[in-house]
Each structure stands twice: as C-alpha cells, then as structure tokens.
Write a structure and sequence with these properties.
Keywords: Methyltransferase, Transferase. One of its GO terms (biological process) is lipid biosynthetic process. This protein has a seven-stranded mixed beta sheet with strand order 8-7-6-9-10-12-11, sandwiched between helices. It has a three-stranded antiparallel beta sheet with strand order 1-2-3. Strands 4-5 form a two-stranded antiparallel ribbon. Helix 1 crosses helix 2, helix 7 crosses helix 8 and helix 12 packs across helix 13. The longest helix has 15 residues. 39% of the residues lie in helices and 15% in strands. It folds into two domains: 100 residues, no CATH class; 211 residues, Rossmann fold, CATH 3.40.50. It is an alpha/beta fold. The chain is built from 14 helices and twelve strands.
Length: 324
C-alpha cells in the first residue's frame, strides 16, 4: 500500500531511542494503568507498553472499540501501515498517521502561515512542493481548492524568487472566494488573506476562479491557460478541493491528462480516507489512477506513486508522477 511513513519505521529501527521518541511524541501515559498508554486523539484506546516494545503479546488495538477511531480497522486492512524492526505491529506508524490526521483536521489548518497568509499545509509538504517546483520549473500550476489562498500565494512567492519564471501561472479554483473561506475556516486570522487580491505577486502570477473545480466552466478556463504555455513547458496539478473520493475522481478525469510527462499530480490529504470509516476518501481515487486500465491510461496518462518527493518525515498527500 501507499507508504508515506517509512521514516517512522527507520526512526524506530534498531534502537530503543526511536521507540522512546515515538512514545514521547505520540502517546500519553495513563495514570490509572502504568503499563498502558493512551493516545490523546483516541482516549479510550489502551496500548500495552509490552506491545510498543515489540514483545509477543496479543494486539490489543484490534479488539478495543476505542481504537476504531480514525479508521483503525481500515488502516490495517489497506496495507497502508508497514511494520519493521522495533515496530513489528506498525504501532508507531499508526500513531504517526493518526497524529497527522488530528493535525490536519484541527490546528494545522489555521496556525500554519506563509508571509502572514493562512497556508493550511503541513510545513514538510510546503518544503516538498518547493523542491518539486524548483526542480521542474513548471509554467503552469493548476490548483483546486483555493481555500484561504495561502498555497497559491506560497507558489507565487517561489516563482518570484526563481530565475526565468516571470511568465509562470497559477490557476486556483474554488467554489468560494478566498476571503469568505478565510472568515469561515480561520476566524480572527484573515487580515492578510483579505488583501491578497491587491498583492503584486498575486496579481502577477495567480488567476483565481470561483467555480466548481469539476465544472465545464472551470475546465474551459484552465484550457485557456494551457494554450498560452510555451511548448515543452511542465504543468503541475494539485487537487485539494472536496475530498470525497467520487469528487476527486471527477477532478482526475478532468485534469490528470494536463500533467506533462515527468511532472506531477498531487492528490492532497489522502490520509483523510482514514479519518472516519466507512468513507469514500481521496486515497481510493488516487489508487484508481495508479492502477488504471489501458483505456484510461490512453486518456489520462500513466502515473506512478513517487514516495521520494516527500522525504521530510511525513506527508498526508500522494505525489503521482506521470511516466507516459
């Protein structure tokens, strides 16, 4: 399965220090049960310290109802988690994944900023995107899910800092204007987002489209921008609008074919497929593209998962590289 958690496996491999770090970062000691650790985001889930040490004991998380929070059963069934030395049951990896879900659904959204704008992205993914854009130097980025405008503003800032990228364009699409999203999603943190339209970088690089990202109208605007691209230019597509799997699949059908060979389709927040169960989240849509049949590949292109893009310890996204 999709494995964005290899660094956690490596962290805990071959040393007690990794186990201790995983324990300190992702668990709380339960005062009533000194041999049991309770995860802060699953308060009724007791994890035996013997299990955390990798000793041969029953896997209590499988049978404890409280451990079903954040789609525990689905994580196990999907093969998303992979055990390793020092973490034979993938317990630390699951804690890492759940912490990422918890952060994505709560404080990361409004506390992470770029030059005063709510960017609503984990810092490690911002770094991954920065490296990807610098390496590919795409002339067009198509982003669905403008949100507060932070991601588009972040990319515009990067293009401004690069050489020979004055003609780069970012088309960002959302059903709501960024100012309304700022008020709704991050109340009290809207000062900079409200003035983005007047920012020189925003005006130079960004085209904001208020529409359903899967609509014909939005697709026509994107096609207009594609036609203006210099021959041989790279195009990157990032999907971060509605995270229902069926909607993400419609976006894939609309925009995947625009991604140039060697460039990337970023399906954001695939970890939210585990946030509640059952739920048709973005992970299934991304995997459907990777495993597409020949007919779909001729239409959309051939994509492979590239786990090397996000090498900063954790990602909640799936980075798909087009190879044909």
């Amino acid at each position: 399965g999709f494995n964005s958690l290899v660094p956690m496996k490596q962290l805990s491999s071959g040393c007690r220090g990794g186990e201790l770090l995983g324990l300190v970062l992702f668990a709380r000691a339960a005062s009533a049960q000194p041999s049991c650790y309770q995860l802060p985001y699953s308060p009724h889930c007791c994890v035996s310290d013997r299990l955390l040490r990798g000793e041969d004991v029953a896997f209590s998380m499988e049978t404890t109802p409280g451990c079903q929070a954040y789609g525990h059963g689905l994580m196990r069934q999907s093969g998303y988690l992979q055990g390793g030395p020092g973490d034979p049951h993938g317990v630390y990896q699951e804690a890492f994944l759940k912490q990422g879900i918890y952060n994505t659904m709560s404080y990361v959204d409004c506390k992470t900023q770029w030059l005063g704008v709510n960017v609503r992205q984990p810092p490690q993914d911002l770094m991954a995107v920065q490296e990807l854009l610098f390496r590919l130097r795409p002339k067009l980025v198509v982003e669905t899910g403008t949100g507060t405008g932070g991601s588009a503003f972040f990319m515009a800032s990067l293009f401004h800092l690069m050489e020979d990228m004055d003609d780069a364009r970012i088309v960002t699409i959302d059903e709501s204007q960024k100012e309304l999203n700022s008020v709704k999603k991050c109340p009290g943190r809207t000062k900079k987002s409200g003035s983005l339209a007047r920012d020189k970088l925003w005006k130079h690089y960004v085209r904001e489209v208020v529409a359903d990202s899967s609509s014909t109208a939005a697709q026509m605007i994107v096609r207009e921008e594609v036609e203006l691209m210099p021959p041989g230019s790279h195009i990157v597509v990032s999907l971060d609008a509605n995270h229902a799997g069926s909607f993400v699949w419609r976006e894939i059908l609309a925009y995947a074919s625009l991604v140039t060979v060697g460039s990337y389709l970023i399906v954001q927040d695939v970890i939210l497929s585990f946030a509640r169960y059952p739920w048709d989240g973005p992970l299934g849509a991304a995997e459907a593209l990777v495993h597409a049949n020949e007919t779909l590949r001729r239409r959309l292109g051939t994509f492979v998962r590239d786990d090397d893009v996000a090498h900063f310890g954790y990602t909640g996204h799936m980075y798909l590289r087009r190879v044909a």
